[in-house]
Amino acid sequence: MSFNDILGQESAKQLLQNALRRQAVSHAYVFSGPAGAGQLETAVTFAKALFCTESEDDACGHCLECRKVDHGNHPDLTRISPDGASIKIDQIRELQRIFSYRSEKNNPKVYIIDDADKMTVQAANSLLKFLEEPQMPAVAILIAENGQALLPTIQSRSQQVPFRQLDPGMMEKILVQEEYPAVLVRCAVHLASGLEGCRAILNENWFAEIRNVVLQLGKESLNRSGMAMITASQKVFKSGLSEHLDMLFNLFHLWFKDMIYVQYGRQDCLVFIDQSEFISGHASARSTSQWVSCMDLAAECQKKLRYNVNGQLCLEQLLMGMGEAPE
């Protein structure tokens, strides 16, 4: 992979390639932005470019140095990710031990820390000392969804490289070309920030099932007959789909937003593209403010779920709120 193979993120790529051309590479970078937007791919490509013997500002992919990175056995590249829920001080100490050895061919040593915002306080303080006093030339790449969660002293000693969510239309085109079902792709690109995240969703068998359940619940809740409660019990909590309630709430958010799109004549923006006729015929069943209230309720129920409130209670609260008679 070279910089040309990374989708979007032109500003980030330009910043890094300019540093390579000017031989002004910083000793530390923070790649911050939504998960899956290409931070890891860019970090590995940047490391390859630093080692590459053929290209000045990119990774050629053919030289021995690039091939070592591709095969995961380059001795001067180390990658750290959370051990359980966090990155611990022992992992940073092990990194320091590895970096006490000489590099090959006078390369800088490069380390990539995934989810760097999950470092414990002790690990972060240990890393700070390492950033300030490396034993040899080194380049740190810290990947963090929330770069502001890092110690201010780490932030101040690092160059910030912001990453942005990839354009959904761009991802949709690529994924449809890869022969993923178009109706599922249209949802996935609004649920993940990058191609890998979309593919991970699309490769799950339950994703199509839970999308169908959301459609059924969304339709049944409009007639306020109580059927939605029965459907939720049978098709969510007795089928194993209850493990994916977080995704269910995300999909409901998109369903409500589609209703609002129709009210504003933006059918071209619909996510549930196979349901355009139904949505167009029922969007007026609620006012815009009521659909917004439904979105707020879905977010509130999702928040409760993440705070370990009983999942069935969270979903029932949403369905009851959706089924209330219009004002």
Report on this structure.
The protein has 15 helices and five strands. It has a five-stranded parallel β-sheet with strand order 2-3-4-1-5, with helices on one face. The chain has two domains: 3-162, 3-Layer(aba) Sandwich (Rossmann fold), CATH 3.40.50; 204-323, Zinc Finger, Delta Prime, domain 3 (Up-down Bundle), CATH 1.20.272. It has helices at 10-22, 39-51, 64-70, 89-98, 121-132, 152-156, 168-177, 182-188, 195-202, 205-220, 227-237, 245-263, 276-282, 288-306, 311-323; strands at 28-32, 77-80, 109-113, 138-144, 159-162. Helix 4 links the parallel strand 2 (77-80) and strand 3. The longest helix has 19 residues, at 245-263. It is elongated. With 327 residues, it is of the alpha/beta class.
At a glance:
This protein is an alpha/beta fold. It has helices at 10-22, 39-51, 64-70, 89-98, 121-132, 152-156, 168-177, 182-188, 195-202, 205-220, 227-237, 245-263, 276-282, 288-306, 311-323; strands at residues 28-32, 77-80, 109-113, 138-144, 159-162. It has 2 domains: 3-162, P-loop containing nucleotide triphosphate hydrolases (Rossmann fold, 3-Layer(aba) Sandwich); 204-323, Zinc Finger, Delta Prime, domain 3 (Up-down Bundle), CATH 1.20.272.
